[in-house]
């Protein structure tokens, strides 16, 4: 059974639930989250999305992202997905929130209010191959260089979140 995600108003208030794929086919506004994990050296953990993902497969992005399920708190969902995708958990703190829309591959559309969480972790990573084909620790400078020279290798939301984080000094 497909998980139902939270449809929201422009004020991020829940107004219903819908299957994840259908919400992306219709481009309906829904709640999402992105997680940025750093190590003690200040490097960011990026993942390369599995090629088999329903959208944006094979692109590099932040540590983890996802959608809270209907009735699930966003922070709880963030911890759940971090374990499911990267095989670890760590303390997370909400840093900022932003709204974005974009057209995706497979005739899908993102229309999300994205809650950005940050955390620190230095332990073992056990990436789920159904979620991530690879992962890498990168400095902010290396990420900015990569985004400037090869933006096509990265997810849309990752690029927007990095711009907003830099402009706002969020992390």
From TrEMBL:
Gene3D superfamilies, per the entry: Nucleoside Triphosphate Pyrophosphohydrolase (3.90.79.10)
GO molecular function, one term: isopentenyl-diphosphate delta-isomerase activity
Pfam families with a match to the protein in the record: NUDIX
Residue intervals of the Nudix hydrolase domain: 28-160
Keyword tags: Cytoplasm, Isomerase, Isoprene biosynthesis, Magnesium, Manganese, Metal-binding
Pathway terms, separated by semicolons: Isoprenoid biosynthesis; dimethylallyl diphosphate biosynthesis; dimethylallyl diphosphate from isopentenyl diphosphate: step 1/1
Example of a GO biological process term: isopentenyl diphosphate biosynthetic process
Classification via InterPro entries: Idi_bact, IsopentenylPP_isomerase_typ1, NUDIX_hydrolase-like_dom_sf, NUDIX_hydrolase_dom
Keyword Isomerase among UniProt keywords: yes
Entry keyword annotation includes Metal-binding: yes
Entry-linked PANTHER family: ISOPENTENYL-DIPHOSPHATE DELTA-ISOMERASE (PTHR10885)
HAMAP family in UniProt: Idi (MF_00202)
Annotated family: Belongs to the IPP isomerase type 1 family.
Protein's name according to its UniProt entry: Isopentenyl-diphosphate delta-isomerase
